[in-house]
Amino acid sequence: MDRQTCDTCGAVFRVDVPRQAGHEESEEYYCPECNREYRVRASNSPTVTLITPRTDKKGMAASLFETIKAHIESGNAVIMVDGKGEDKTTKEMLSLAKENGRDMDCLVLDFESKQK
After folding, report:
1. d(Cα 51, Cα 15) in Å, to the nearest integer?
2. To which H or E segment does residue 73 belong?
3. Taking the alpha carbons of 20, 24, 28, 31 in that order, is the dihedral positive or negative?
4. Which residues pair with 16 in a beta bridge?
């Protein structure tokens, strides 16, 4: 069992490599976040388990962030930020809006229900 960090996206995952002397050959396995291919000598296909997600701001959240960033910088949209989301992302959005003089155009929404 080996812990590995993806060179491409920064995800951390565990790789369980089955070994049997005399039966090992090159086997591929993939990062569970970005699908980068890795190879290892093993007797069968390794099992991969994600530990922490990618850190390179790619994927759906990153493309949404980039879209919002473009609108903030162009000055042609009111920005709504879901306050229930990740605090770090919310702070980045608000900081970016402030840097571009758009902080008064931001509305932070919190959809968390307080009902019992």
Report:
1. 10
2. helix 59-74
3. positive
4. 47
Sequence spans of domains, the chain? 2-52, 59-109
* Contact between residue 68 and residue 108 where contact means Cβ atoms under 8 Å apart: no
How many Å apart are CA 81 and CA 95, to the nearest integer?
12
The rounded distance, in Å, linking the Cα atoms of 112 and 46 is: 40
Per-residue pLDDT of the chain (116 residues; tens, 9 = 90+): 689 999 888 889 999 998 888 888 999 999 998 889 999 999 888 999 999 888 876 655 555 666 677 767 776 655 565 555 566 777 777 787 788 777 777 666 655 545 54
User: Could you tell me whether strands 37-42 and 2-5 are parallel, antiparallel, or unpaired per DSSP bridges?
Assistant: unpaired
